[in-house]
TrEMBL record:
This is ABC transporter ATP-binding protein. Keywords: ATP-binding, Nucleotide-binding, Transport. Transmembrane segments: none annotated. Belongs to the ABC transporter superfamily. Residues 13-247 form the ABC transporter domain. It comes from the Bacteria. It comes from Paenibacillus lentus. One of its GO terms (molecular function) is ATP hydrolysis activity.
Length: 247
């Protein structure tokens, strides 16, 4: 588990002089930023500031009009190791007729990009762990399409967490989720950041929560978007499961 200080300063995301425009509408102008291993980056900004656009570029769904993006040191167009990155977009919703159950959707996080994978006992246990953390174990056998928006969002978060990706990118992850589950979720991810070598980038409108956890001064700005960053070196906790942090 020991990670050298040097290794934990490896760049996970590098934005190099990037700009982005939707047709004539320029949204991001000549912006450079680095996310290092074991950073927690909180992204705050008013509606329409360009936060989602930035995230979509970071996961390869949009290409910058100018500049370059590197993931884990590789130019994004050559990057193939998508299992290392979890991304929960802002608004997910399933077609009500989609036939998979909650458990199946969460489990599918384990075989991203793989057509077939044998499901073993360890996988079941990881799944139960993720379901428990997001408080959806009692609805594990329901069809995803028949759940409320808030319940579906918890399923997406459980799906992203099951794999314990090196980098988790979250776009307003707790919209529509009740206060208790929100609190547990933030406690969980800040714990994972402090003790489990994970790197986070999270868009939120909850300035108070961001400042309380990441400090009250942004490290950088891109137009109206502010970036709050906290780095973690703590290596004490080696318990591998997800649940212990909220108990
Ligand atoms: N597909 C699109 N085509 C044209 N303009 C777009 C498109 N998507 C977003 N925009 C515009 O780009 C700007 C940035 O949008 P973006 O969704 O990135 O903002 P945001 O900071 O995530 O906002 P919010 O807090 O409301 O989610 C907005 O003015 C938006 O209207």
């Amino acid at each position: 588990m020991a990670t050298s200080a040097l290794a934990c300063h490896d760049n996970i995301i590098e934005l190099v002089d990037i700009s982005f425009a939707y047709k004539d509408k320029k949204v991001i102008s000549d912006f450079s930023f680095k996310v290092k291993e074991r950073d927690f980056v909180g992204v705050i900004g008013s509606n329409g500031a360009g936060k989602t656009t930035l995230l979509r570029m970071m996961v390869g769904l949009l290409s910058p009009t100018e500049g370059e993006i590197l993931l884990f040191g590789q130019p994004i167009r050559r990057f193939r190791d998508w299992d290392r990155i979890g991304y929960v977009p802002q608004k997910n919703s399933f077609n009500p007729l989609f036939p998979a159950t909650v458990r199946e959707v969460v489990m599918s996080g384990l075989y991203n990009n793989k057509l077939f994978r044998r499901i073993g006992k360890a996988d079941q246990s990881k799944c139960n762990d993720a379901l428990e953390v997001m408080r959806i174990r009692d609805i594990a056998d329901k069809r995803i399409g028949e759940l409320s928006g808030g319940q579906q969002q918890r399923v997406f978060l459980a799906r992203a967490l099951i794999n314990k990706p090196d980098l988790l990118i979250l776009d307003e992850p707790t919209v529509g989720i009740d206060a208790q589950t929100q609190e547990d979720f933030f406690e969980l991810i800040f714990h994972m950041h402090a003790h489990h070598h994970m790197t986070f980038l999270m868009v939120s409108h909850d300035v108070e929560m961001i400042e309380e956890n990441l400090g009250d001064q942004p490290l950088d700005r891109c137009g109206a978007i502010k970036f709050y960053v906290k780095h973690s070196h703590d290596q004490e906790c080696v318990i591998p499961d997800l649940q212990h942090s909220i108990n």
